[in-house]
């Protein structure tokens, strides 16, 4: 009898203590989550994206009449005059025979220039000498699947602003990215290009760049971070200035191919909460050859929270009825190249401002999208090349591993609930200075 009462009493105490602990935990965790930028910032559902620009697949020329006398007779009449004045026809992009790298071919450096090539390679961790030999307007093959070429997209598509952040990027790779956007994007869809210089120290990225972009046939602005901010905060700065309805992020060493933009924007029109990535083709860091990537891989991650490519499972092929041109749902994205509805980007809470320099933001955005009611897709009809390199060319103030682990820990803490323990288990040496509890938690884990 006495023992029975004691047991009931003990049980009550345990239950009450657990409840109190649970509540404390909830309060602490939600506090951390807020501090870490983990909220979806839910707002009233905006109406489906309004595609206000009248975009006609077959009629993409600028209506010169409109520009010169202020009125238009053609289909372009809904464009704002201010925008139109700045559009000029794109230069014709034809293969220039004799120039290296045309049609995405490899560039070979003669043996006598080997030493120079090696020296220049160190600057950006890619073959800068090769890049400098290739036209900023180089031609590329149309690498799309046949089924993509005659796909019809809605006439009404949103406009996009292209945001390109860079730190000490080479002139030719940066400007080839810009020219490939200009040359291969339908003008009415391209609102502007926003270049964000993340405290570069190279002279060509200063005034010379600002003067150069003034000569371009589309609006291009150069923004600068006050001090080295890292790619995440640099992108946030760029995003703040976006005037288009969709934000398209690109790395500063990309080349967009024929028809890259329409399928991305068309998918967002269908569902504004879809975040879309092109297939990221490979521009060789050795030869600048354009190499088409497989459309049979999607993004995943390991428990160290490194992004990894994995083979698309059969169940996703079944869901797509084995149509390789259909959007491919992907768990995570590589992160450098994607389009997102601008309003949705902010509804999601944008990027985690507490992330430094490089890394982790791609998984963070992927988890954010999935957990905040969106979808992540690779659009196989859209191909953009990217120079993949083996090593990072720039400094990581404070050390690479500290920065990368810091960013990854924020991903784990904010979005992974108890699954974060796997991350800490995989990084036993993790010492995390800003959040002592993290350190304790990771040390306490007995695996
Ligand atoms: N970047 C930046 N600030 C940094 C680090 C990187 O603006 O502190 C830019 C970089 O110039 C590039 C983009 O962020 O345009 C992505 O970086 P990187 O290409 O090195 O990443 P990777 O493609 O190798 O993952
Ligand atoms: Mn890159």
UniProtKB/TrEMBL annotation:
Q: Where is the Glycosyltransferase 2-like domain?
A: 161-345
**Co-factor(s):** Mn(2+)
Q: Name one GO cellular component term.
A: Golgi membrane
Q: Which InterPro entries match?
A: GalNAc-T, Glyco_trans_2-like, Nucleotide-diphossugar_trans
Q: Which family does it belong to?
A: Belongs to the glycosyltransferase 2 family. GalNAc-T subfamily.
Q: Name one GO biological process term.
A: protein O-linked glycosylation
GO MF annotation, one: polypeptide N-acetylgalactosaminyltransferase activity
Q: Which top-rank group of organisms is this from?
A: Eukaryota
Pathway this chain belongs to: Protein modification; protein glycosylation
**Which keywords describe this protein according to UniProt?**
Disulfide bond, Glycosyltransferase, Golgi apparatus, Lectin, Manganese, Membrane, Metal-binding, Signal-anchor, Transferase, Transmembrane, Transmembrane helix
Q: What's the protein name?
A: Glycosyltransferase 2-like domain-containing protein
A Pfam family for this UniProt protein?
Glycos_transf_2
Name the residues that span the membrane.
Answer: 12-32
| Cellular localization per UniProt | Golgi apparatus membrane
Asked whether the keyword Metal-binding is assigned, the reply is yes
Topology in membrane: Single-pass type II membrane protein
């Amino acid at each position: 009898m006495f023992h029975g009462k004691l047991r009931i009493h003990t049980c009550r105490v345990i239950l009450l203590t657990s409840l109190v602990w649970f509540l404390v935990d909830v309060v602490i965790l939600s506090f951390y989550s807020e501090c870490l930028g983990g909220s979806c910032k839910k707002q009233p559902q905006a109406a489906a994206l309004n595609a206000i620009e009248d975009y006609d697949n077959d009629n993409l020329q600028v209506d010169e009449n409109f520009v010169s006398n202020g009125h238009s007779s053609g289909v372009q009449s809904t464009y704002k005059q201010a925008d139109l004045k700045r559009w000029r026809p794109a230069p014709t992009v034809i293969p220039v025979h004799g120039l290296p790298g045309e049609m995405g071919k490899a560039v070979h450096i003669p043996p006598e220039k080997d030493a120079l090539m090696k020296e220049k390679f160190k600057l950006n961790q890619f073959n800068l000498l090769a890049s400098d030999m290739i036209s900023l307007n180089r031609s590329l093959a149309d690498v799309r699947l046949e089924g993509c070429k005659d796909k019809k997209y809605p006439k009404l598509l949103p406009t996009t602003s292209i945001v390109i952040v860079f730190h000490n990027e080479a002139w030719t790779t940066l400007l080839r990215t810009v020219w490939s956007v200009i040359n291969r994007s339908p003008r009415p869809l391209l609102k502007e290009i926003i270049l964000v210089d993340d405290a570069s120290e190279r002279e060509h990225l200063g005034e010379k760049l600002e003067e150069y972009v003034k000569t371009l046939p589309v609006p291009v602005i150069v923004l600068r971070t006050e001090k080295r901010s890292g790619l995440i905060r640099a992108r946030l700065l760029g995003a703040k200035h976006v005037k288009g309805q969709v934000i398209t992020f690109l790395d500063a060493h990309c080349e967009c191919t024929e028809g890259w933009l329409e399928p991305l924007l068309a998918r967002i029109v269908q569902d504004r909460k879809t975040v879309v990535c092109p297939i990221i083709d490979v521009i060789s860091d050795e030869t600048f050859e354009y190499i088409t990537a497989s459309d049979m891989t999607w993004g995943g991650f390991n428990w160290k929270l490194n992004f990894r490519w994995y083979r698309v499972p059969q169940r996703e092929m079944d869901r797509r009825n084995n149509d390789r041109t259909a959007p491919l749902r992907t768990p995570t994205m590589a992160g450098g190249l994607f389009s997102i509805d601008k309003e949705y980007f902010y509804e999601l809470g944008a990027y985690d401002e507490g992330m430094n320099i490089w890394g982790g933001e791609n998984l963070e955005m992927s988890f954010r999208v999935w957990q905040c009611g969106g979808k992540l897709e690779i659009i196989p009809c859209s191909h953009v090349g990217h120079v993949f390199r083996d090593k990072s060319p720039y400094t990581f103030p404070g050390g690479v591993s500290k920065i990368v682990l810091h960013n990854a820990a924020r991903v784990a803490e904010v979005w992974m609930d108890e699954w974060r323990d796997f991350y800490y288990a995989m990084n036993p040496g993790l010492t995390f200075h800003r959040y002592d509890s993290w350190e304790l938690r990771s040390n306490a884990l007995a695996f």
